[in-house]
Model the fold of this input.
Amino acid sequence: MEINQLHLNKIGNLIVQTTASITKLIEILYNVQLKVELINQQEMIHCPKLLKKHHKEKFEKPILREICLVDTHFSPFIYAETLFYKDNASFDIIHDLYHTNTPIGKIIEKHKLEFYREILDFGVVQDSNIASHLGLNDDDSMIYKVCNTIHQGKNLFLICEYFPIDRLNLSK
Done:
């Protein structure tokens, strides 16, 4: 899907095209502090729909982490499904993922990881389950973005982020 088919404004285009920390970007653009509201975190049993075609690791079962990034008033800004490959992560990163409410972008920054992030897919989706986590109506559209984070040549995170289009004012 081409970006101009999404009918995004400048902020929407920036969100789907940047390889920088989305957490930091949202905090700057909307003048908020975000933290993790953990929904689920366990060894993956079923791969989420939008991550399935990009999940290539066949030997290791990744951890599936489902979260909302919320502000200090617990208003949700982003819903994310993340596969993290614990065999490719340091003890400190795994500890932070399990024992803090720190977003992944801030964990990467805290540990000064050199990484490469590639955008694999983006578009518009309707999903009543995800919409409910974001406080949206079942039929509200959201922008999604799938990224792969590589550290030292190994997959570290495969992330699908969902953004409420109207609440974040992302369309023209």
